[in-house]
What we know:
This is Phage protein. The protein is an alpha+beta fold. It is 22% helix and 33% strand. The protein has a four-stranded antiparallel beta sheet with strand order 1-2-3-4. The termini are far apart.
Amino acid sequence: MSNDRMTVVPDFLGELDAGVFMNKIAASLNTTALGTLNNGGKGKVVLTFDIERMGNSVEEKRVKIKHKLQYTTPTPRGKATEEDTTETPMWVNRGGKLTILQEDQGQLFGINGATDGKLKAAQ
């Protein structure tokens, strides 16, 4: 598979939950690292992605991605755990590349600026 058909991971993470998910990852990493440093023990950050098709049609080419962030932070008397789950719909483009917007939306205009003939004016 060519590299241009691969999902661009930083873009993918940036689109989840309208960009908020990446901030949640950063905050959980900071909290876990600080708790581990101050209290000893081990911290843990886990990302889980559950992907399911939207609708019953294969032709729709969209999936629903449920993204879960779970982290455990050492505390002075044990540990604290938090979990956050949200979902984002995404397009599955050629080769399986995931994007928030569909890559190929068809050709609206021909080379001369006229419509491509597939579009008809409403009468």
